[in-house]
Every structure is written in C-alpha cells, then in structure tokens.
Amino acid sequence: MLVLASGSQVRADMLRAAGVKVEIRPARIDEDAVKESLLVEGARARDVADTLAEMKALKPQVGGLVLGADQVLSHGGKLLSKPATPHEAREQLAMLAGRQHRLISAAVIVEDGRPVWRHASEVRMVMRPLSDGFLDSYVSEYWEGIRHCVGGYRLEAEGARLFTAVEGDYFSVLGLPLLPVIDYLVTRGVLDA
Hints:
Nucleoside triphosphate pyrophosphatase; cytoplasm; nucleoside triphosphate diphosphatase activity; EC 3.6.1.9
C-alpha cells in the first residue's frame, strides 16, 4: 500500500490504473507561501516542484511509503499557479498562447519520515495561437475542469486542441512522473514486474 499525499483524483486514478494500491491522505501546505519564499531565494522551477513534493510527502505522519507530488509551470522566468478565477485562467492562457512553456512534475517518496527517492520530469509544451473568442468560450465551458490545473488547461481533455507540440512524458503533464514512480516501486518489491 502506498500513501498518496495528494487530493488529486488524476494522480490517484493514474496509480490505480497501473495496479498500485493507494490510500489517499491529502497534505495541506501553503503552496503559495512556500513558492514565494523559494523564489525570493532564487530557486529554480525544478527545485520549487521538488521542495513542494517533499513537503507534501512528509506531512502525513504514517508508516510505510508516502508519495508527494507537485507540478509547476515556468514561462518567461515566472512560475504560474492554479488560476483562482475564470478571469485569471483566461489571462494565463492568453499569456501562453503562441508560445512555449515548461511544465515540471516532481515526485518524492518518503519512508519513516525521510525521503528515500525523488524524481522530476520536464515537459516542453508549445501552445498554438488562440483567438480571443476561443479563449472566452474555452474558459467559460471548461472552467470547472481547468480550475485545478496550472496554466488553465487539461491536456487529457479538450485542452489537447490548445497545443502544437508536447515534448516529454505524457503522465508528467497530468501531474505525476508515473513511469519512474512505478520503476521505483518495482525495484523496492512493492509491485511485481
């Protein structure tokens, strides 16, 4: 049994679909405060994702293996957070339209209160130019589905139409570098292979 320190249904579904028995224990941390502090210190996007994943994995005080994960979007030297309003989602999408950005997904596994494994995957994504009308209708129609997604899109759904290129691991775009996680669990004997 793996404890997932995340409330993300997508992450839980990915793990379960891969045959991983998982118990959900969402970790509550002030992600914005942590990000802000790290950015003031000059941390790179990859380090921010890794730190947040580790903090989440350390939060549940349970025995066994605990998986924490986090994802950050880096564009033009800025890190974007999940949009708080439809207006903010539209602004994020307009900023990304016609441009390239990086999506970094980090995972950390903790055992008995200490990190024993970590991995971060980076995906380069190129969004197609989008008209104002399309942005308005996209956000209006899909707000409930994209409100929990950094960048305001879901590649696994209608968001696929927004892109011309995605270079990297598909699972990482969804929020978890799944294949490296599975590899570690197989190596540890948690999963059969």
